[in-house]
Write a structure and sequence with these properties.
CATH topology of the largest domain: DNA polymerase, domain 1
Mean pLDDT: 82
Structural class: alpha+beta
Number of domains: 3
Low-confidence stretches: 144-156
Distance between the termini: 31 Å
Number of strands: 7
Length: about 210
């Protein structure tokens, strides 16, 4: 889908447009699409900025997507790994949620703010949380977040434990009734209590969706 040809651009802001900025880099004008919240943070025309970029080539078009920091670019790339999420939708998401809030919501399977983004429905929000939960947790670990689970760690869980409650809460946030979520998580734990929490949530979601 995509090919990275330009890691970043450093140049002078010529003008800003809706959803993009025209950047002069060595006498060449690059049109770079950026999230709307980043657009608000750009300096006035004539000032120099650095944008971390991803070039995506599709058919006969080449689009440059730019971000003010490398973390935003990384989250953009991660979003593109989700089936049904293309560059435009990923940019919409990052226009509404900053990377920290988005990663936090994904790690907790909280879909409310993600669903508020134009073009993101309930199913897409749930898919983002399920597909990216493990990566989100790893990112939080790397940032030293106390709420994250340790990367790759398996924890012994039982009904009433914090891990049990977190798994149930994640399923409830995805739209399932608390009693059903508790029953399914309990059933899975009875089969074996040593399991990573993201896998526990994925199994629970599969059973609640009728897929075992």
């Amino acid at each position: 889908m995509g090919l990275v040809l330009i890691g970043y651009l450093k140049g002078t802001v010529i003008e800003t447009r809706e959803g993009s900025v025209l950047l002069d880099v060595g006498g060449i004008g690059y049109i770079v699409e950026i999230p709307s919240n980043a657009l608000r943070d750009l300096p006035p025309s004539g000032n120099e900025i650095k944008l971390y970029t991803e070039m995506i080539i599709r058919d006969d078009r080449m689009n440059l997507y730019g971000f003010l920091d490398s973390e935003s670019l990384m989250v953009f790339k991660v979003l593109l790994e989700v089936s049904g999420v293309g560059p435009r939708l990923a940019m919409n998401i990052l226009s509404v949620l900053n990377p920290d809030d988005l990663i936090s919501d994904i790690s907790k399977a909280e879909t409310a703010r993600i669903r508020s983004v134009h073009g993101v429905g309930k199913k897409t929000a749930a898919r983002i949380c399920v597909d990216l939960k493990e990566k989100a947790s790893k990112i939080l670990v790397q940032k030293g977040d106390r709420m994250s689970t340790r990367d790759g760690a398996q924890v012994a869980m039982h009904e009433g434990s914090q891990a049990f409650e977190d798994a149930v809460s994640a399923l409830v946030n995805l739209g399932y009734r608390p009693e059903k979520a508790k029953r399914v998580i309990s059933e899975i734990l009875q089969e074996g209590s040593n399991v990573e929490i993201h896998e526990l949530i994925k199994r629970g979601l599969g059973r609640l969706s009728g897929v075992r």
